[in-house]
Design brief:
Elements (H helix, E strand, L loop, with lengths): L9 H10 L6 H16 L8 H15 L2 H12 L6 H4 L7 H12 L17 H4 L1 E5 L3 H6 L4 H4 L5 E5 H7 L4 H12 L21 H36 L1
Antiparallel strand pairs: 1-2
Helix pairs in contact: 1-3, 2-4, 2-12, 3-4
Length: 242
């Protein structure tokens, strides 16, 4: 799984570290993380002339040696560091938002439904290699007349390992998830944002399922960004008081 929306994302971070002798303070580390995650999921170098945007970022670091300036450049482009439901609606696995979901799931230690193994891109082999799974199987949704965009919406995708993906196959979620909950309890779905209200797992309620899960995914992403951003703002407030 290729997780970077652009390899250029690594260059401003490396350049800033090099310019400062490899030393990055805890506060600046948070700023770099905030810049990286927002630039990654909002496609900083995926719009317009990526080389020109990169030159602007590197010039900003060279001139000011300030991550605040780097963040200002990003803000001018993306307008908002946070995500809305409208932004991720209809996005597929090729979207940087999908990769953002994996970053967060990995950091939270999300485990595979059936094997209990924590998700990791380092796992290999047909059995354990990380895959994505359509919670509502594609074949099932095609029968209901859903189009490709609706079927492949990231709100219908979950990270699981290869073995689990094959075992689930094209079974209906109301069947395999209900069986899973009976066997292991609701806790097994923690972190996947799947409603335990089985009514929303019926194929005829697919759109409502997407709305529910999309709202939960957006909340998790914004909470994740908010924790990094709040640390940065808290530091700035303390600095102003001195």
């Amino acid at each position: 799984m290729h997780l970077l929306s652009s390899p250029f994302l690594l260059l401003p971070i490396a350049y800033y570290a090099m310019k400062n002798g490899g030393k990055v303070s805890p506060d600046n580390e948070k700023k770099l993380l905030l810049w990286f995650y927002v630039a990654q999921m909002k496609g900083r170098y995926s719009h317009g002339s990526s080389e020109s945007i990169l030159d602007s970022d590197l010039s900003s670091i060279n001139k000011f040696n300030s991550l605040e300036e780097l963040l200002k450049n990003l803000k001018l482009q993306v307008k908002d560091f946070y995500v809305s439901e409208e932004e991720i609606k209809g996005k597929s696995r090729r979207s940087p938002f999908f990769n953002m979901m994996f970053y967060i799931s990995k950091q939270r230690g999300i485990k595979d439904w059936f094997t209990g193994i924590a998700l990791s891109e380092k796992l290999t082999g047909r059995t354990h290699a990380i895959q994505f799974h359509h919670i509502f199987p594609k074949a099932l949704l095609r029968k209901e007349g859903m189009n490709r965009k609706e079927i492949n919406d990231i709100s219908n995708l979950a990270f699981i390992n290869g073995k689990t993906n094959r075992e689930i196959s094209s079974n209906e979620p109301i069947k395999y998830l209900s069986d899973l909950i009976k066997k292991s309890g609701e806790i097994v779905l923690n972190g996947y944002h799947i409603p335990v209200n089985t009514e929303l797992l019926e194929v005829k309620k697919y759109e409502r399922f997407l709305d529910y899960r999309r709202a939960e995914i957006v909340k998790e992403i914004n909470d994740f960004i908010g924790k990094i951003d709040s640390v940065k703002r808290k530091f700035q407030q303390v600095k102003k008081k001195k």
